[in-house]
Amino acid sequence: MSGLPNQYVGIGKRFKKYFNALNNLGKAAKASGPLNEKMSQLIQLAGAAAVRSEGSVHSHARRALESGAKPEELYHTLLLLTSTIGFPAVSAAISWIDDVISKRGR
């Protein structure tokens, strides 16, 4: 579980059955429909931004990029949320995506 947030890894180690169920739920949800991995990650990115979860925005931004999304697609995903979650939440999420993109450029 390298590269994952320490809190996430810690929960996985402490609560193995719970963690396995959580991972299986995510896999089952993705397998239940026609959306590809990139689209799934962009949708999860939007949800993470909506609940203002910095760690989840980082995680789903990384996974979206790994699934072939371009940085412009991540930013557009967030811009589309402005009328739904408000500019301050979108602005924060953009700064979190900037973190991910700047680390990839190193």
Describe the structure.
With 106 residues, the chain is an all-alpha fold. The protein has two domains: 1-33, no CATH class; 36-104, AhpD-like (Up-down Bundle). It is built from seven helices and no strands. The protein has helices at residues 6-14, 16-31, 37-50, 54-66, 71-79, 82-85, 87-104. Helix 3 packs across helix 5 (71-79), helix 4 (54-66) crosses helix 7 and helix 5 (71-79) runs antiparallel to helix 7 (87-104). The model has no long low-confidence stretch (mean pLDDT 94). InterPro entries: AhpD-like (IPR029032), CMD-like (IPR003779). It comes from Candidatus Sulfobium mesophilum. Keywords: Membrane, Transmembrane, Transmembrane helix. The chain crosses the membrane at residues 74-97.
In the CATH scheme, what's the topology name of the largest domain?
AhpD-like
Structurally, how many domains make up the residues?
Answer: 2
Give the low-pLDDT segments: none
Order of helices and strands: HHHHHHH
Helix content: over 70%
Q: Gap between N and C termini, in Å? A: 22 Å
GO molecular function, one term: peroxiredoxin activity
Pfam families: CMD (PF02627)
Organism: Candidatus Sulfobium mesophilum
InterPro entries: AhpD-like, CMD-like
